[in-house]
Amino acid sequence: MKIGILTSGGDCPGLNAVIRGIVLKGDKVYEHSFVGIRDGYRGLVEDDIFTLPRKQVRGLSKQGGTILGTSRMGPFEHGGADRVKEVMEAHEMDAFVAIGGEGTLTVARMLHEEGVPVVGVPKTIDNDLSATDVTFGFETAVAIATESIDRLRTTAESHHRCMVVEVMGRHAGWIALNAGIASGAHAILIPEVPVTLEQVTGWVQATVNRGRAPVVVVAEGFRLAGEDVSAKHGVDHMGRPRFGGIADQLSPLIEELTGIETRSMTLGHLQRGGVPTSYDRVLATRFGTHAIDAVHRKEWGTMVALKGTDIVSVALAQATSELKSVPKHRWDEAAILFG
Ligand code: F6P
C-alpha cells in the first residue's frame, strides 16, 4: 500500500515521533511506502505531496514541530472529498493518516463518511480529547509551564510582587491545573470553573499576608464570572477567536484592588516548542506504530487512543463527540491549597 501522512492544526511536541513510528513499522513489517502531505489538508487539496522514505524519518523522535508542516485549513471549502479523492488517485495513495486535534479528526470523520480511507491519531497539548486518556505533547507543555513558573517565582519573591502566568488551554484547563499544582500556585483559574475577581484577590491577599509572593496560574480560555474580560486578537483561519491576553487583563485589576504590584506573563507558544519529554516520545511512537497496524487492517474511520496502558482503536465519531474537561472535583483538590 501507499500511505499519506499529514499533520494539521496547532503543532505539538511528539508529532515527528508519530511520523517516525508509522514509517518505520510500515516499511519494516508491512513493506508499505509513504508520502508526506505538506501543511495538513492544504497539501491534500493543493496537491503538495512528496515521497517519504524511511531514511527521512531517522532520529526524528526527539525533534519538536513537524517535518510535514501544518495549517488550520480545511478541505471542504476547497473541493471537499471529491478533490481529496482526485489527488489521492493521482498519487496512487491508498489511504492517509491524519494526525491532529478535534478539528482535524472531525474533518477526517467527515471525509471517511464520504468514502475516503483514513485513520486518525489524536494530538493536542490541551489534553482535551475524551476518547483517549492522554494526548502526547501535554506532558511536555506541563513540564515547560512548570519550569517557567518556578523561574518566575524566584523573581516575584525577590520583588514581593504578584505574578499572573497565562498558559494554553482553550476549552480545558488541564495544563493550568497540572502546572499550577506542580509549581505550588496560590490560585489556578480554568475555563471550567467560574471564579470572581474578589475570590482571586482574596487568595492573593492571603498569600501576601503569609509573607509570600503570590503566583496565579490562568488558562487562556478562563473568563471572570459575570464579567466581559476577553482577549481580542481576531480569529484564526478556521474562524476561531485567537486567545491569549487574559493574564494581561487580570493583573491591573488585581493590582488596583489589592495595592500589590502585579505583573503578567503569557507563556504562549513556548509550551508547544522544543523537544518532547521521554513520556511523550514513547506515547507518540506507540500511537504511530499502532496507527499503521490499523491502516494495514483497513480500519477506516478509526483513531488510536490510550486506555490505561494499552493503545486501542476507537471510532472517529466517538472520538470527536465530546471534549474532556477538568471535573470540578479535580479543581477542588487543588483549591484547598490556594491563598
Ligand atoms: O489547541 C491547542 C492550542 O495550543 C490551544 O491551546 C491554543 O488556543 C491554540 O492551539 C493556539 O493555536 P495557534 O497557534 O494556531 O494560534
Please render the helix and strand layout as text.
Elements: E1 2-7, H1 15-28, E2 33-37, H2 41-45, E3 49-51, H3 80-90, E4 95-100, H4 102-113, E5 118-122, H5 138-159, E6 162-167, H6 174-183, E7 187-189, H7 197-209, E8 215-219, H8 246-258, E9 262-266, H9 278-296, E10 302-307, E11 310-315, H10 316-319, H11 328-335
Parallel strand pairs: 1-2, 1-4, 4-5, 5-10, 6-8, 6-9, 7-8
Antiparallel strand pairs: 2-3, 10-11
Helix pairs in contact: 1-9, 5-6, 7-8
The chain binds 6-O-phosphono-beta-D-fructofuranose.
Residues 10, 101, 124-126, 168-170, 220, 236, 242-243, 272 line the site of 6-O-phosphono-beta-D-fructofuranose (F6P).
**Pattern of helices and strands:** EHEHEHEHEHEHEHEHEHEEHH
- State which percent range the strand residues make up: 15-25%
Mean pLDDT: 95
Shape: elongated
Bound molecules: 6-O-phosphono-beta-D-fructofuranose
Radius of gyration: 21 Å
Percent of residues in helices comes to 25-40%
- Could you please say which CATH topology of the largest domain applies here? Rossmann fold
Total number of beta strands: 11
- The CATH architecture designation of the largest domain is 3-Layer(aba) Sandwich
Spatial arrangement of strands, main beta sheet: 3-2-1-4-5-10-11
The CA-CA distance between the termini, in Å, is: 59 Å
Broad structural category? alpha/beta
The number of helices is 11
Largest sheet data: 7 strands, mixed
**Oligomer class:** single chain
CATH level 1 class label of the largest domain: Alpha Beta
- Unreliable stretches (pLDDT < 50, length at least 5) are none
Work out the count of structural domains: 2
